[in-house]
Design a protein that fits this description.
Chain lengths: 368, 271
């Protein structure tokens, strides 16, 4: 990772976007750093694509402004912005071949034919498409179209590349491969990427930072690890990965700890160092524990801080992992526990009585 | 049982084709026959009826009139069709279904009703009948065809293509020239050819709305009163048939090519 990450490339300042009486964006503010891989993550209809289109210049904001590279973009149309977009449909021009598609934007810059050909060849090599220059769009696979769309944006040498769900049309295997390729390409060329996606796994894998959006607002802007370990509320927590929620009551607060009475887990001192100081700790009414933070203990295994009894209700076998649904003693709703399938550990059948280990460090606190 | 039904289906298809095309094949048959009486047996081969057409001045005037009406109709209905097709493919507006339906209605209205209604209206307005009034009537019946053809072109034209062009630094006009036009052009040409062909072959509206200047079908109708002229009408009919078929084949080929380019359904189902 480069250390140029600190300089803001895009500043989004109080952007409001209304379509008629519908408000798509409620005063969004964020800074996207230079060279960063930034994702806008959220369910469909959360406003992430609208925000991307505001940055691209396709939608003028109703209020607020966007600055790119320190320059206010108000009133500047899409064809004069230092951004280029990779569309969800890829929008490869069907009447042009791959080279003509990639060279399309350069032609508007009045470059010589030789210069265009050189730049096009260079970028096609970068995306591994140099032998497909004469092909038309309908002769390309989904993954190849995606590469052409990316090449067509890259060749313009924009300051920012905007990607609107670029991998959603690909099958799972190709998608996994393209995620890694896109990520390493972005790192090697150092251009700022803004990715719109509804796939939390994709966002976690690819991004330096992620803005999680719901209903036209950014709920949390953090690194992938920060989002996963310290989700600010239950909505973010359940959108990013799986989270077990258990009701809890605050018994007392000290400088170091908060004492909680948690359903099924009992009374416990949760350390405060992971909790935002601004968080109203007295109002905590729920805690969250990730599935991998619980452990099904073998008899000999005694290292876990805390233990609780439970019964396996169901299990889902994924090869490398098994997801158990376990009803803990004293709590009706089963929790999800994931266990790595290491050598010598067999899958625990449903109906088995088990001892579940967990640690106070793994607890995230929430309030309504 | 399955074999039986597929056999009967084949018989039905053949009979249907004979019913459809046998009369049409009679046209060139008698056009090359030496006798002036249109009846079997054929008496001999001749091209004199075709040669005779070359020296018939009234026919040439009628042909000129038809060309004028056909070309003008094709241009106007394709232009109007392009506006309507773009609007219906791109924008949602209140009453859209109703408006599009009303525009498409002349497609199924009996032409004689349209012709009579137009004649009554023109008389009421005190407008003299001329080739322009024929053009008016033809535009009315041709525009629905133009809309049907151009709608499939515009539907295949993804909005993101125009946005991508704009995003890559191209101007609005440049986007139209480099992306929109090349993609809808085959549809436009197809529409021009089909509307021209419809206008060229149309009789009823032309018969009612033309004044002293007759179009080709009206000329043919007038010639049918003279039995001696029948073979030359056959010859003329043969030429018209050939021209129409060639134009329609070109139009359909273009429409399919444009559809294939945009990766949409290439059957006539889109119409």
């Amino acid at each position: 990772m480069k250390d140029t990450h600190t300089k803001p490339m895009i500043v989004i300042d109080q952007v409001v976007k209304k379509f008629g009486s519908f408000t798509a964006l409620h005063g969004i503010s964020a800074e996207i750093r230079e060279g960063e891989f930034f994702s806008l993550l959220g369910p469909s209809g959360c406003g992430k694509t609208t925000l991307l289109r505001v940055i691209a210049g396709f939608e003028p904001p109703t209020k607020g402004k966007v600055a790119i590279g320190g320059k206010d973009m108000s009133g500047i149309p899409a064809n004069s912005r230092p951004t280029n977009m990779v569309f969800q449909s890829y929008a490869i021009f069907p009447h042009l071949n791959v080279e003509e598609n990639v060279g399309y934007g350069l032609k508007t810059r009045k470059m010589s034919k030789a210069d265009i050909a050189r730049d096009v060849a260079e970028v096609l090599k970068l995306v591994d498409m140099e032998s497909y220059g004469k092909r038309k769009a309908h002769e390309l696979s989904g993954g190849q179209r995606q590469r052409v769309a990316l090449a067509r944006a890259l060749v313009m040498r924009p300051e920012v590349i905007l990607l609107d769900e670029p991998l959603s049309a690909l099958d799972k295997k190709l998608r996994d491969q393209m995620q890694v390729e896109l990520r390493s390409l972005q790192r090697s060329i150092g251009i700022t990427f803004i990715l719109v996606t509804h796939d939390q796994e994709e966002a976690l894998i690819m991004s330096d930072r992620i803005a999680v959006m719901f209903d036209g607002r950014i709920e949390q802007l953090d690194t992938p690890e920060g989002l996963y370990r310290r989700p600010v509320n239950r909505r973010v927590a359940s959108f990013i990965g799986v989270m077990n929620f258990l009701p809890a009551k605050v018994l007392g607060v000290t400088d170091q700890h908060v004492k909680l009475d948690i359903a099924a887990l009992g009374q416990i001192d949760v350390p405060r160092h992971d909790i935002d100081p601004a968080f109203d700790i007295e109002a905590v009414d729920t805690i969250g524990v990730r599935p991998e933070m619980f452990t099904l203990l073998a008899d000999a295994d005694d290292t876990a801080q805390m233990k609780v009894q439970g019964e396996v209700v169901d299990s889902e076998y994924y090869g490398d992992m098994t997801y158990y649904s376990v009803r803990l003693a004293g709590h009706d709703t089963p929790v999800t526990i994931s266990m790595r399938n290491t050598a010598g550990r067999s899958v625990v059948p449903p109906g088995s009585q088990v001892t579940v280990g967990w640690g106070a460090d793994s607890i995230v606190v929430f309030k309504e | 049982m399955k074999w039986l039904s597929s056999k009967w289906l084949a018989v039905y298809a053949v009979v249907y084709m004979i019913f459809l095309y046998a009369p049409v094949i009679l046209l060139p048959l008698f056009a090359f026959n030496t006798s002036t009486i249109i009846a079997f047996p054929l008496s001999g081969f001749t091209t004199e009826w075709f040669v005779g057409l070359w020296y018939t001045d009234t026919l040439h005037i009628a042909l000129g009139n038809s060309m004028f009406v056909g070309v003008t109709t094709a241009l106007l209905s394709t232009l109007l069709g392009a506006f309507a097709a773009r609007a219906s493919a791109r924008f949602a507006f209140p009453g859209k279904t109703g408006i599009v339906g009303l525009i498409m209605l002349p497609l199924v209205l009996p032409e004689i009703i349209i012709a009579v209604a137009l004649l009554v209206m023109l008389n009421q307005l005190g407008m003299p009948l001329s080739l322009w009034t024929v053009v008016g009537g033809h535009v009315l019946i041709c525009t629905p065809f133009a809309i049907a053809i151009l709608s499939s072109s515009y539907r295949g034209l993804d909005r993101e293509l125009e946005e991508a062009s704009f995003d890559l630094g191209e101007s609005r006009w440049g986007t139209f020239r480099r992306v929109t036009l090349p993609l809808v052009l085959p549809g436009v040409i197809s529409s021009l050819l089909i509307t021209f062909t419809i206008s060229l072959d149309e009789f009823i509206i032309a018969f009612f709305l033309t004044g002293t200047d007759v179009t080709l079908p009206v000329y043919i109708w007038s010639q049918l009163r003279f039995p001696a002229k029948l073979p030359s009408v056959m010859a003329l009919g043969t030429i018209l048939l050939l021209v129409s078929v060639v134009l329609l084949i070109i139009a359909e080929a273009l429409r399919r090519r444009s559809a294939a380019r945009q990766g949409v359904d290439t059957t006539l189902a889109g119409l």
